[in-house]
Write a structure and sequence with these properties.
Jelly Rolls; 6-stranded antiparallel β-sheet; 6% helix; globular
């Protein structure tokens, strides 16, 4: 799958307090888990609330899993490759660890990529179409649709024949009550 560049413009202030552009160009923080697989472009990461907006450091230049750190946020774009239609065996526990997710915090696993994070996630579908699988249902979304996800079990599956590009903003949150109740699908 093509690694499509994303122009990232970061503004800030110069020494006199004047608003300036600090960075302007394709984000260099692009990775692909496997050949032909999903492509992840990291745009910005914060580790505190309220956010420290001083300095000119590239805050996307960090190693981080899927969920944000405590009191943090993540802004990324993911290009989801079309599914091959043939499920490949996956070590779900290992996949979660690679994603930076504690397997002990997970609920029912409907799909090999099912996961949940302790975050409020804003998802904006930029291109293509994709299905989001929940515990018992699925939602088909397409370019222009937005989703607010509140710590739910989910998996993204691109059943189409073209890549799907989604911008994600994840913000650290409290665990939903359903997690504390130990809810699991039977």
């Amino acid at each position: 799958m093509e690694k499509k560049p994303t122009r990232r413009i970061v503004t800030g202030h110069d020494a006199s307090g004047k608003a300036v552009v600090l960075m302007d160009g394709p984000s260099p923080h692009v990775r692909q888990r496997s050949a032909g697989g999903n492509v992840l472009t990291m745009l910005w990461v914060t580790d505190e609330m309220p956010v420290d907006m001083t300095g000119s450091k590239d805050r996307a230049d960090t190693q981080i899993g899927v969920p944000p750190r405590l009191n943090g946020s993540i802004f990324r774009i993911v290009d989801f490759a079309p599914s091959t239609g043939i499920p490949q065996p996956v070590d779900h526990h290992k996949m979660l660890v690679e994603m930076g997710i504690d397997p002990a915090t997970q609920g029912y696993s409907r799909h090999m990529n099912t996961h949940r994070t302790t975050s409020i996630d804003y998802a904006l579908v930029l291109e293509g179409e994709i299905d989001m699988l929940l515990d018992d249902t699925e939602v088909h979304v397409k370019a222009g649709d937005v989703m607010v996800q509140q710590g739910t079990n989910h998996a993204w599956v691109n059943n189409g024949d073209k890549p799907c590009r989604i911008a994600f903003i994840l913000i650290d949150a409290k665990e939903p009550p359903a997690w504390k109740q130990g809810w699991t699908k039977t």
